[in-house]
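Why do we care about 3D structure at all? Because function follows from shape, and shape follows, mostly, from sequence. That is the central idea of this module. The next example makes it concrete: a single protein chain, its amino acid sequence, and then its structure expressed as C-alpha cells.
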Amino acid sequence: MAEPSLKRRPTPRELQKVRAGVPIAEFRARKPPRRLSPHERHVLLDALEGMFAGIYTHLPLKRARYGFDPVQRLRILRTQVNELLDEAFDAEVDDIFNSLRDAHTVYERPGYEGRVAALPCIIEMYGHFTKPRYVVSRVGDWGRKNGFAPGVEVETWNGVPIDRAVQRFGDQESGGRADSMRAFAVASLTFRALCLFALPDEDEVVVGFRGVDAEGRPVGKRRYVTLPWRVLDARFVTRFRDAGAKRRNARTVRVRAIHPAAAAIKQAKLLMFAPEALQGVRRSSTRRSAAAGPGGKVREFPTGLPDFLRAWTVRGVRPEDEYGYLRIFEFDVPSVRGFLQELRSLLARMPPRGLIVDIRGNPGGVVVAAEMALQFFTPKTIEPVRFSLLATDFVRQFCRRVANRAEYAPWIPSLEAAVRNGEQYSAPFPITDPSRCNEASQVYGGPVILVADSTTYSSGDIFSAGFVDNGIGPLVCVGAGTGAGGASVSDYESLRVPVAGSRVKLPRLPEGGSVLYSMLRLTRIGPHLGAPIEDVGVSVPPPRQYAMTRDDVMHANRDLLAHCVRWLAKQPYSVMSVQRDGRRRKIEIATQGLDQLDVRLDARQLASVPLRARDTFTLDVPPGTRRVELCGLRGGTLKQRRVIDKTSVLDG
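And the structure:
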C-alpha cells in the first residue's frame, strides 16, 4: 500500500485507506516475515544475552520478584536452536520477553514494525478492578451489526467468560500488580501491538453480549457478533507527527520513557476513531450547553496539538462556578518546546477556581517534556526524579567509551566505586537538568488534582511521581496505582555501536529486527526518596482509589469529573494575574486571596507588600533589570510565583 505524502495533511481518501488496514488473513498470505537461519538464531541469542546480562537495569529485580532469569532461559534456548520450528522458536523468544513484565523491553521481529492487529471496537472496564464489568464504548465501521453498538455489555469472548479471557490475556501483560495487568489486558484486548504480542491465531472473534436497561442492567437474550481482525500500520501517525520536525538524536532516544506497545495502540485508535486530529481540525472554543451536575463540559479551547492535549471547562458544584480540565494524552512529542508552549497557552486560559489534570492511559514519551511541564502547576522548586545504571563491567566499559563519556559523566565515578563497594547500582542522578525544570514560572495558580490509572506508564509514571513528590496536589487513581514503568528506554543499536571494537562488543542483530530495553532505573525523590517505580508504580491509598462507573464510560467521565470537582470546591484558592508593559517598563499585578507580595529584582529583595483580599499593585521596573520575581503568600505560605526575565518582556 502506497503511503500518503506527509509533507501535507492527508486527504480524506488517503486517510480512509490507511484506516481500513488489511484483513488478517490477507496479511498472513503476503510474503511471510523473513525467517532466521540457525546461525542467525545463535547471533540473536548472543545479542540478547549480552544485553540482558550486561546492561538490562531490572535484571536483579526480575530475578528476585518473579524467580525468572532471562539469561538462563536464553542459554537453555540456545541448546534447542536446531530442534525448534520457526513458530516455536519465535514463541520461546516472546515468552522470555513477556515473562519480564516490562513493557519497555521488547523484541520486534522483521515484518511487524509498527503494526497493530485491531478489532472494530473498544471495550472498557468499570466497577472495582476485583469485580469488573465490561462495556463497549466505541464501534468502528466494520463492527456495526446484529445490534452490536456502544453501551452493550460483553459477557463472552470466543465462548469464554469475558473476565476469564481478560485474566488469561493479562498473564502476557506488563505490570507488577493484579490491577495493572488486568487494566493493560483490557486496553489491548481489541488492539494488539505486534511488537509485544504475536499475531492473533484466529481470523475473527465471536463476542457474546447483551443490551442494558435504563439503569445499566443487562436485559434480553445474549446475542453474538463475529468481528474480523485487521492489521493497521500505526507508523503512519508517527511519520505524520514527525514530518518537518527535527530528527531525534541518539541522546533524545535514550531519555525517552515510553510503553511502545501502548503508544502504537493509541496511534491505531487515533486512526480508527479520531482521524480529524490528523487533518488539522482545531477544536472550537464556542460555549456549549453544560451537562447537568458538576463535571459537565461547558466550553472547549482550541489547540494545535489535539492528539497530545485537550482542554475545556467543567461545571462546578454551584452553577456559577467553572473549573478547568486538561487532558494530556502522551509525552512522546516531536518538539518539547512546542509542546510546552501549547500547554502553557492552555493553562493561561483555565479558570482559577481549580484544575483537573487527566493523564489516564498516557504511555509516556520524552522525560524532559514530562518533568519540565510540572513547573507550570506550582510555585515550588521542582526536583526531578533520579536514574541509575546497573553496575556491571559492561556498563562501565560502555560509559568509558569516547562517544558516551560526556553524557554519562555523572555516573562514572560511582560505577567505578561499585567494584570496591559491591553495589548493584550506580549513584542516582537526574536526566532532566534541575535548572530546566525551574527555568519558567508557575502558570496556573489554583488548586490542582491529578487523575491517573493503572495504564499510565513510563513518563506518565514520572509525571505522577513528580506531581506527588513535589507536593503539587493529590493523585486520584483508577486502580491501586500507576502502571509501574520505572526506566528510560534505549535501543540495541544505540548500545551496540558505541562498544564496537571493545572487549564487550555485541553482534549486529539479524537484518530487520530491533530491540528496545530498560537502561536507566528510575527512583523517586522527596518523601519517597529512593523508592523504585518498576512493578510498583505510584501507589495511592484506598481513599484516593477510584472505580469507574458505567456513566463514566458512556458519558465522558461524568462521575469521575464530579468527584474531582467536589474535592476542588472545598479547597481555598488564590489568584495572581500579571500584565506586562515592556515599553513603559511597568508590571500591573492583580491579586485575590493573598495577604503578602514579595518582589525580587535580579534575586535582590525589593519589597514585601501587604495585600488586601483583592488588591492591585503597579511595579516600576528600573532600567537594566534582567529578572523580576513575584511571590504571593497567604499565611506565610507561598501560593503564587511568577518570573519575568529580560529576554521575554522587560526590554520590550
